[in-house]
Records
---
Amino acid sequence: MNKVKATKGTILKVAMWYILILSVFAGIANWLPQIRGDAPEAAVAVDLSSITPEKLAAMGKMIVFGTENPSFGGGGVPIGKGQCPLCHMFFQEQKADRCPVLIGEEGRSNNRFKEERYKAFASRLANGEPNSGVKPHAAAGGQYLIESEYCPNCYVVEGFGIKGTNDQESPMPIINKPPILLTDTEIVAVVSFLQTKDDGDFTKWTARDSWEKYWGKPLKADAAPKEGEAKAVAAGPPIALDTDTPEQIVQKMTCFACHKIPGISIAKTGMIGPLLIEKTNAPNRIKSPEYQKAVKEGKAHASTPREYVIESIMHPDAFIVPGFADDMIKDFSHKFTVAGLDKLVDHLLQQDAAAAVKEGLDRLPNEKEGPLKKADLSSPEGKPVKNAATPKTDEKQASISGQGVGGKF
Amino acid sequence: MRSFNDPRKAKIGAVVLLGVIGLLLLLPFIPLQAGAEEAKQEAAPAEKKVEKAKDVFYKGPGEFGIVSGPPAPKLKYPDDYGTYGNFQSRSLLWVANQQHLYFGSFVLAVPMFVFVMELVGMLQKDKGMARKYDDMAHEMMKISLTAYSITAILGGILIFTFLALYPGFFGYLSRIFKPIMHVYALLFVLESGTLYIYYYGWDYMNDGGFLKWIHLSISFLLNTIGIVLMFFANSWIGFMMSPAGVDEQGRFLGDIWKSVHTALWHPLNVHRILGNAAFGGGVVAAYASYRFLAAKTPEEKAHYDWMSYVAMFMGILALIPLPFAGYWLMREVYGYRQQMGITLMGGLLAWVFIMQAMMIAILFVSVNYYLWQAMGRMPGAERYYPLFKYMLLILIVATISWLTPHTLVMTPAELKAMGGAQHPIVGNYGVMSAKNTAINIMITTTVFCFCIYQRCNKVPTVKWAALGNAALGALFTGAAINIVFLGIYGYFIPANVRIGLSVPQVCSTLTCLFIGVTLNTMMLKGARQLGEVRWGQMSPRGSYALFCLAVSFTWTMAVMGYLRSSVRLHWHVNEILRDNSPWAFTNPVGYAGNMNSMNVLLFWTMLLFVFWLGALSAKKAHVTEDEAVGAGKATLPAGSH
Amino acid sequence: MANQDAGSGEMGKTIVYFLVFMVVATGYYYFLDWVMMGPMQNLPFPYK
């Protein structure tokens, strides 16, 4: 062997060998699926006045999966800021069984808080769960879902607790604390997604209400929206905003085309939909046998006038007022912002028969309840009674429950 | 023997020196004490103003600490981050960190080897062998000396990089670890001093008796200092991953020990010691291989062939317990935050483990290949050559099933064609059960290969040779059957029970390793030799296998470092200090692969410089070395009489 | 691992020994499986 040459040749050969190996390694690393783990955006300043329930649910989906169209091909699962799909299964195509499956969770949530087991948790943690300080007190499905995020230990599904704790402690992190650290609105968004993801049915959407009821305070926007952000939302298709007056909302949503609404100057002529005096109507409608039938069939879900009104706007075909056809426009769930919806619902819930009569408005002939002339027969637009069947309905009762509702909200 | 001093004075001096170094090792306890004192002092005068807060990690009933630091800053970009041009600050820091870590690991690992080598040399009865080990230890130390100064330089660069690019984060960390950082620096000085005394005192203290033992003790202290240094450095990364000793806002609670002793500190410590040892073995083996290939004389060739073999062997010894340390670390990660564990094993970073699996497969195949090549220097090895093709077959099958991912990323059309994300046939090789089986079979094959290597130039002459051979055969056959049986059985039971199968599988492998090698060694006592080992007569392909081994070690370290660091996701300090720079995202594995290859190449290029320096100074001593080798050979028969 | 230097008598002995040790080894590994699998099924964390 030529020894002098050998040294230089060796260095070269060894270097080539190194570069070859390193290229192969890097090549394989590049051949593997490339997943970039983006840092979660600093909580988007969500302005409740500029977001629709649908958008809220979409935001929830974004938090869960990090994308609007998660695909589960190849066994991969997109993971969003909330990191939920690491453990929870949201869709059949997705594989995850570490934690309870969340398909049909909305349905189950309505029963969880009624369980004896839930009560056992509540009494054991009556002084507050140590890590979160929360006392379990969910009184509705939505509240249970909210509670589960703030206090995973408040109820642990059987078989999913940390081993050795007899299912009394959950392995789930507290969602509003690090590392997940979702804001209140984001949690509401996730719950919105949970409640509506299975069938896109927004009648079941109570996330925001549930949050406020659970914590007994209004849900505030997380941070002041940046300048121009609210405006950006306002552009595009008409959207009912918080800043709008009820009048403007009715105009934007073209409610006046079909409905007469007391207190709204442009809504005096609609002849297609029922007169919207919901302080009077809503409580009675809920009690009506037709509505109860719809509830039994699982179509309708409201138990308070407010829920009834929201349901009627968000999901018009949940219940059709007898005598009317299923004609109402069904895209309001993405035209209303949460706060805008609130505003309109507030207005509608304040309107009673007296207000209508004062403005000279009356029911349509096809309304089962009949014209508003029991108290005021001298109504100029008084119409012959076609359906006199107005059982147990009287103004007094209606206004009482209306007030009750008004006091609550 | 040289004796230019009064030997008695030298002895006393050596003992005093040892004592001083030993005493200085108490330094690390100062910050703990100081921290406690400081907290007390701060607490005493302002009794009213004392604010107590709950520790994020130590959640016991009495675990309230006195708030003694500001909350973690909310970093803003670009105010709290620096940049150099259009470079990604994080990638720059990545390079600085990785290079410092490589050299740090190297200078930590080499003294460990040297300690063992020196000890082995001292315990050798054969004077020629003793000399050989001692020379090798000395040579390694010389290389480490240059590497040591490079480590210090890289450490300086790293700190400057931190200060320049991540001042906000570094400020927060150094405020908490203030006392530790000073002690760290002092220990570094102490280590330098000890290192120089150790290296330059080598020949002087080589009296074959008392002074040599003192010399070895200095080596022990040197290693202790090195390990304590590493523990301190680990405490910082441990704190970043699983903070403790601070409250939810990141306010320091006065007890530095709690911040040091976080959930992941000890698992990281153990994992890193073993990892460093394996890495050091790989690097020394590569160095020796290079010198082997470049050697000009048969003596030199023989020396470096032998050295590369010993280094490789030591590296593999450290590699074997490494998976268990890794298992412990993962377990603690799950214990600390389940979600962190899932991000590692089943979420965002799961593909990195596929990469790691591949690296491990390459490691084992390289070792086996090296051993086959190495048998070329053993007269009588021809007897075993027919076995190799079967072993290769086993290794290939195991590697393939080890590498097959459980699920593959495919286009929808492919998915449809296959009828699901899992291939009806191939898919089965990818599940955990098959992987465990594959890796255990690979290790067992390697152990078997080593047993063959041990005996390939020998014929056992012990009376119970037939008995021993039968026992060895049964041991390996039984283990293979058991491992495969458990692997197949795993398909018929649910996943949570299946995990239990991996333990007896590993135990079977370990039985082969310990009992098999012990039995084999015992059988070879006084065995009839078919010929001397012809050191230096290995095919160059063996050296290339060792290079592959060394690169794989280095690369595996890099990729697992990426993994460890990435699992914090967008946090500087997990859940306490958020990364608000544009580089808070987690890089995909491909980018990490490119960075790693680049880093590994850079490291080896620098190392080449170190080796070159070593060879440069060796040239002068070359003549004497040749003489020494010659002298050693001449005295060998005399010594063995 | 037949001993190449051994005569045919040695070979036969080795085979008999091998069979005996096979029984011992099988017993040992079976014992290992039996002992180890129990406690490992109660890990404190989910494993995937």
---
Amino acid sequence: MLTKIPSVLYSGLEALPVDVEVNVAFRGLPGFEIVGLPSKSVDESRERVKAAIINSGMDFPAKKITINLAPADIPKQGSFYDLSIAVGILSAIMDFPIPEKSLFFGELSFDGSLRHTKGAFLLALFAKEHGFKNVFLPKDSANEASVFSSINVYPVERLSQLLAHLFNRQKIIKAKSRKSDDVDLSNSEFDMREVLGQEQAKRAMEITAAGGHNVIMVGSPGSGKTMLARALPGILPPLSEQESLETTKIYSVSGNIPPGASIIKNRSFRSPHHSTSLAGLVGGGTNPQPGEITLAHRGVLFLDEFNEFSRSILESLRQPLEDGVVTIARAKTRIKYPARFILVASANPCPCGYLDHPKKECVCTPREIKRYSKKISGPILDRIDLHIRVPIVDIDELSQDKRADRFLKSSELIREQVCKAREIQQKRFRDMPIHSNAEMRNKDIKKYCFLSKEVERVLKQAAIAFQLSARSYFKMIKIARTIADLEGIEIISVAHMAEALQYRQ
Amino acid sequence: MNNVVYKDDEEYPELLRQMGKDAPKQLYFKGNWSLPLRARTSEFSERFTLKGSDASQKIQNARSDRSSSVLQKVNFSESLSPPQQAGEHVHTYDSEKLLSLQKFKEPSIFENCLAVIGSRRLTHYGKQAMERLVGEIAMNNITIVSGFMYGGDAIAHKTTIEAGGRTIAVMPCGIDKIHPEDQEDLYNEILENNGLIISEYEGDMGPALWTYPQRNRIVAGLSKALLVVEAGEKSGCLITANCAKKFNRKIFAVPGPITSSVSVGTNGLIKEGAEMVLSAKDVLEYYRSLDSYSKIVSFDHSKSPPCHSEAKPKNLRSFANAQDDNKNAQDDKGFEKKIIELLEREPMGVDEMSRNLEMPVSELGVKLSMIEMKGLIEMKGNKYYNK
């Protein structure tokens, strides 16, 4: 008795069609075999399926059962084939038809219940694109998949429940399709209002958010670098629907969506520790998995203690910073993951951290300081537009200083301005493959950033006075462009340029 | 090119000899002889031609085994230097001439020495004070002696060279070693500007904990007076000051804020009776009162060179004029003055300034960039300073 159930196979962020072929032979010694290059997790599915069927109150057939995952020459990963296999076996022995245009997805527990399984969102996307009608998946993963109104999502709690549904005894209630527009923006941990002092750093964050620029903060421990970085997602514009789907895809595949959660609506904030491996940061492994930079796609990648990261790891950021994608090539596979993020780096000014500290003494020699700052290579620094110093703030003094409150802006207020600036940029780059000022190449800068004679003169003076490199020169123009956008002004003025110069290297 | 003088030699600095048993037995030194002398060449040759004395004989014996290699070195460096310069000093390369060349080409370098020392962790204030004082002092033909350490010492050497003065660096390591290594540029600049590198130790011996205080005693011993700009409690600077006291040298100290840990030492010295220095004049007056000074330099007060900070024209200031055709020039000028006044009182970060002036940073940044471009203020670390 042969049954065929469609399923999927994940390769990077793509889902490819797979057939789960179940053959229950009436001759031969009893056995249970899976073929079609199953990985360990797929192979172990045998034990789970067997136990789940038995614990659901049915007999497991003492027959020769063979499962083929076709196409047979591509390795299969994951535990989600459990449900397809179980349904296939049961269909063969209990002789019930498998509903057409349906996908079964999920990992089985020994007691016959279904567990939250990663990749549900991608499955729903696959179903939508390939014309499937019904998707049966674990209840905990249902929210993730119920985004598209064109498919029916059936949240399944137990295997027996699914059988009752398939025998038309008791139908499973379809999950309500969720609308993606109920966005909760109060997502970031800190509001910019809560950050005391640091007026310049906050302004830099505003520019960063508005233009998608990368930023590096240098300051002593305890000056509030981390707090500023964590407040950044809160002033970024909300994810567009497209962006939200992109992010959800990544999170779904990497199993970063918690049980019961739906699609990602908030900008991601990733802060990997400096001991993170290369594969952990940019992605990798035998079956290349997305790394932190991909998880930070459309969000913020915060690298605290930037110069404590190993050099090779930092260098590996060059391609993604430039292109917004990372290509992971292995002997057997070549996978592209998106990685368009805002890099927020933070570093101490010296090894001990207390250089220029108002109260503590720095104990580093000039040589140590030089070596410390040299740890970050030029090409990486070149890709970081804004450079700011974050001084130590005297909290007691500041909380009494009422003058400090005058310019306090809430994240919400800043976000409104940022959104306006982004809209201007979207209009500007509508015919281009780029979205923000930060992505402009030098030739785009010439095209979109007209500098009047006077502005150019100021910039040239600055280039001499501050010894700006050619790269910095263009960075200044980019920042000035964003500052002008924040004010909603088309022409870059001397004031915009002068302010941009504050954030030079 | 280096050589050595012994305690018995005629060329041995007199002041060091006065140190008695503390005087170093020998001094290795390095100087760049291929440079044209600025003055008193004849006097130099008169005083320093070897007269076959016991001392010179001793040197010759001590050096005979090495002289051939030294000779080769000389030939090599001379062949690299422009011919007219080489011709000025060296005609033939016989060993007698060579030895005379290896003596101090200008003994006057030792005659009016001022030891200038400062903390390794010199603050911006210390740097400003040092530049203001040392620049002017060095212009008045006073040799600045220091210890070539980074921080205060390095700035003392640098300022002297910029002011066109002569400087002596006393090394805590062997004469052939540059320590700290990353100050190689400064090392070469000292040599190129008629300065001297001195050490008590031979070869490329590394510095040790005990060689620093030993070096400090030479710094103090070589000089008629000692100027301390910022010194922490129990610092190397205070060791030098103690040596200076022992050798009866005059001690000058620059006062600092009582809250600063690197001013504890200097303020303590003042309390103990060191002379407080408020301007270069305080130090110069002391030197003018010395016989040796008036002998060498006919110091004319009315023609005193301008203060160092103004002597070095900031060509960036020309930007100031370029900006003035602005319509808001008047306003900007007023604001500029306000900022400079603010910074004159105390260096400040942007955030602090923004609160003080009650102006959002976005606006303030614009003004600060413009004023900084004019070269009136500068950003160091995370604070703005008045230039």
